[in-house]
Amino acid sequence: MLHRPESLGEAVGLLTGDADIKPLAGGASLVAMLNARLVEPSALVSLARVKELQGSNELPDRTLRLGAMMRHRELAERTTLTGPQRVLQRAARAIANPTIRAMGTIGGSIALADPGADYPPALVALSAAIELVGSAGTRLVRAVDFFVDWYTTVLAPDELVTAIHLQPVGAGAGVYHKLARVAGDFAIASVAVVLLDGGRARAVIGACGPRPLSLAEADAELARGNVAAAGAMLAEAADPVDDSRASANYRRRVIPRMLARAFVEASEQMHSS
Amino acid sequence: MNAVHTAVGHSFERLDAAEKVTGEARYVDDLYRPGMLHGAVLGSTHAHARIRAYSLEAAFTIPGVAAIVTGEDFQVPRAGAFCKDEVPLARGKTIYLGEPVAAIAANDPEIAWRAARAIEINYEPLPSVLSIDEALAGDAPLVHEDLAKYVKIAPSFSQGNVLWQCRVEEGDIGSAWAQCDVVVEDVFETAAQHHMYMEPCGALAEVDRSGRLTIWSSCQSVHLVQQRVAESLAIPMGRIRALAPKIGGGFGGKGGLHVQHLAAALALKTGRPVKMVLSRVEDFEMVRSRHPARIVMKTGARRDGKLFAREASILLDGGAYADESPAVLSFAVLMARGPYRIAHLRSRGSVVYTNKLKASAFRGFGNPQVTFAGESQIDQIAKKLGIHPVELRLLNAVDAGDRWAGGQTLPACGLRECLTRLRGAVEAAPPLPSAAPQRHRGIGYSAFSHISGLLSTACNIYLRSDGSVAVNTGVVDIGQGSDTVLTQICADALMLTPDRISFASPDSDSSPWNWKTAASRVTYMAGRVVLAASIEVRDKILRQAAEIMECAVEDLEIRPGGVVGLKGVGGQSIGFGQIASHAISRLGGPIMGASSLLFDGERMDPKRALVEGFAFGNIGAYTFGAQAVEAEVDEVTGAVRVLRVWSAHDVGRAINPRMVEGQIQGGFVQGMGYALTEEMQWDESGRLTNPTLMDYKVPTALDAPLEINPIIVEHAEPSGPFGAKGVGEPGLIGAAASIGNAIANATRKRVYRLPMTPERVLDALIGKSG
Amino acid sequence: MTDALDVTLMINGERRALRVAPFETLLTSLRDRLGLTAAKRGCNQGVCGACSVLIDGRPARACLSVTANCVDQEITTVEGLSAPLELSPLQDAMVRAGAIQCGFCTPGMLIALTALLHESPHPTRDDIRTAISSNICRCTGYQKIVEAVADMLDASAA
Question: With an 8 Å Cβ cutoff, are C98 and B661 in contact?
Fold first, then answer.
């Protein structure tokens, strides 16, 4: 059974009570998993017609609220994301290829929490928040808390990602670097670096563990300009695996090297802005 | 040949381009037959295990299941092209994880899939060998206990897990090293690559009331399909008609059976058409791969740049079944010397069985592996001697009149021109904008040889009553464009435009034998018989015309547009149509031409070279090439980008230059994948861990170089049609070496293992613990 | 099918009614139910691009689209890119440039390129390469596909 609700309430209602009923966003991940028989849902709830998930708006406190069904392509072309928020635009641009970017959505992507995906490190670097709606109501979860483990988030079976909240930031820089075997592949390792006015820095490593990796101590070192120290801490704390893309050992080695390069670019972006 | 060359040398558009670009072209999965069932295959779950029992009851309880076959349903002797070790479906034991153990026909693909998984098989696991070293260990479990009893088509050492050995030696290698001023010796390792043709393997089999099978399949030879399915089912070949729809690429992977015999067996069992198309995962797991290799390569040279000695010790991992491994090994051994005058040569190798997917034919056929090793060493020696890499190659390049390893004479050789024009092109190329910080650029070279003459082929041509021509060769166009090239050859011989010539789709009922589309052989081998048959038709046209015009044959000539006239006398002429009609109704019967050819090049010379275990009867029509790659290495990550490529190929004569370019460019990019990103990976249980396009990565348009500049060199091959020989494989052969040499040129560090992933490059740059 | 759905799709400007399984993909519906076999099954995972179609003018993987979810969208397949017996300028350009070998990737490439040309009438070579990075080709090495489009644009600009 494929349900096609037109309201968020209806969608949540359909998901409530049966964990085998799955929401369908862009289909880029879920239908691939269906085809590979990795999931066997009893029903699907298409979010295509749920108006509340479309578009974006600015909240009174100037938080930018991006609807969950926003496609990667739209984010990738969103040049109004400036300064630190450019990290999100660049992460979106790094996803897969133009056709997948025209299909996939940010809500669908982060709900899957593929550790090799591009949004998670960018969202954590921006201290973004994820808006969730379920039968128990609405809640806002910090990105860093949203991603729990391999393909695991805090989402309850009847909860949907409804929006991403980007807090207002001042001037700054945002850089996203991705190392992959071929164009469009999932990352072997990725680095999101955000620099804020006032000397604050945030570095988040992707694809090197079950969740995006950031350390307050590493950020502090980065803010002091001790990039090598920051990189060493992150490499030490990373928990990468051996997979078809690369070995765990290589990922650990490459973290500080990629961080150094990303930091240089972020600093240059900072100075030229 | 005194034909006016109006078609040969021109870049005609492909005959099938319009149907492919509109989506009308039909590949096997686009075919639907009334009452058709869908087939699925079940793969084994153990790398090595006895099959104790099958239980099919649960599967048959699923509504819509029509038939199931297992290995027990195929009680036929083992088969195989070189060593008869294969069974149609695993029987008695399974010897690689994923090996087909059962096939199911059902009303739809979903039911077939579920039924496959409902089959219960009682396996008794056995210890397995998953690497060359494990296979060669003293107490290694045997993949084929009965190896000694298997029939082989040529003599070779076979024992334990060693399937085949081969050796070529010339000169006196023992004393040669002492006479060298520089010697390099390294171990090179290469991985299993998958063909990754865009169209997964599939077949549609239908049986008629008389029990005759029609099989459409994605294949590289309708004749081999017919022959081998007949063998698998123990039925006469005449009861099978094998056809080829449009083929979505092959690259060697579809040169042997995949599922044709399974679809056929299910069609026979159910009496209904059965279409079986592998999923991409199954295609990775169940068909064939390129041989992983370990090569100890040693090259010695004199101070003046003359190469003096080469020794290659080649170990190939052949996987679970022999398939074409003996030939791949033989070819690797033969090619290991490289296209150089090296007096002292010892090239030898073994291919071993392991409990993995069988390795077999794949574009290059053993040559890419040895070329990676050998050509890496040529650039190394050039560096040590302070000689330009192209100059060093020119100093040693073979030329017309020289001999290949084993003693065959090269009647033509454009290698020097390839090298010279290559160097010129690289030097003339405008520099790219400077590299970004921490990126290092370098240029690497390779030179290589390959063949295009092998086994046999035939052609029939018929002149229609309107003067048009029907050509039938049995050649399967797997995407490389042979239909068009062969049509051009016929067109020139008869001075017709290609639109006056129809090219038959291969049909084992009516097409004469062609071994297969492989080995870069079609333009050369099929081209020769198309040309010969066309000339026979031409001669008959002239003789018939002489009868009609009541003059001597010698006074007549063929003219463009399908007419015959008197030499030196304009105007008066008669058309092919009139001639054909006259023959059909008045004199002699329909005008036809036929030609049949077994490769007839000079054989190896046993007085000159020691050759043992060589699996080919005769092989030749050597081609030559040289390639340069400009690559950029990122010192931070070890990632490599190929920026520009120049690739010069002596093709004898380019029948269709644009198509030749396409082969060179496509071959390079597939070779780039082999060099940088493609590696089939198995875990310790023998499971292929990356059988999907998510996990096995081939180059995309953004990975491919900005430019691949093909340089066509033409030193006519005397025996070739209009001087032509093949180019299907050479674009790929030198790629890994060129790229590896570019990395070394950029960074002074060398990678000895394929694929040259960022990790392996970084290890080379800063050491494993840097 | 026990829980089949009756749906109507808008394909190449025509309304087509068909009966589908609930989670059936558009690729299966196009090929097996409607006989529109230009879209190919190369991987069924959305990676290879051979199944690509246009949905509301944007490129999409038919193998990743649930048919029942496409009922209010305009679907364009390669069969709809030109009139019978004719080739569009893009198709003609591909033929003339020698950009087709086995042809299995060709339909998907045409979809990606058609989408590109709609959005960006004067794409650069980099834009072309980026657009076709959505589609794997194993035969051509991509060079002549890029040339085909570049040549077509040069010709129309001249």
Answer: yes
Report field, pTM of the whole predicted structure over 0.95: yes
Q: Is A66 on the interface with C (CB under 8 A)?
A: no
Looking at chain C, which residues constitute the CATH 1.10.150.120 domain(s)?
89-157
In 3D space, the residue among B599, B174, B623, B165 whose CA is nearest the CA of residue B404 turns out to be B623
Per-residue pLDDT for C147 more than 70?
yes
CB contacts, 8 Å: A205 with chain B: none
What ranges do the domains of chain A cover?
172-272
pLDDT of residue B2: 35
Q: How far apart are CA B675 and CA B671, in angstroms?
A: 6
Taking an 8 Å cut-off on Cβ atoms, the answer to whether C46 and A102 are in contact is: no
d(CA A121, CA A128): 10
C89-157: which CATH number, 1.10.150.120, 1.10.8.50, 2.30.130.10, 1.10.150.130?
A: 1.10.150.120
* pLDDT at residue B584 tops 90: yes
pLDDT in tens, A235-257: 999 999 999 999 999 999 999 99
B642 interfaces chain C, CB cutoff of 8 Å = no
CA of A11 to nearest chain B CA: how many angstroms apart? 29
According to the CATH classification, is domain C5-80 in 3.10.20.30?
Answer: yes
Cβ–Cβ of C78/B25 closer than 8 Å?
no
List the single residue in A with minimal CA-CA distance to C69: A46
Helix or strand run (H / E) with residue A172: strand A172-179
Distance from CA of C158 to the nearest CA of B (A): 23
By CB neighbour count within 10 A (0-12 exposed, 13-18 middle, 19+ buried), where does B63 fall?
exposed
C-alpha span between B643 and B663 (Å, rounded): 19
Chain A residues in contact with C45 (beta carbon < 8 A): 32, 35-36
Helix axes B527-549, B482-494, angle to 10 degrees: 30
The domain covering A172-272 belongs, at the CATH homologous superfamily level, to CO dehydrogenase flavoprotein, C-terminal domain (3.30.390.50)
Residue C131 forms contact with A (CB below 8 Å): yes
Query: What average pLDDT does this structure show over B606-629?
Result: 93
Q: Which residue from C minimizes the CA distance to A46? A: C69
**Preceding amide of B691 cis, omega within 30:** no
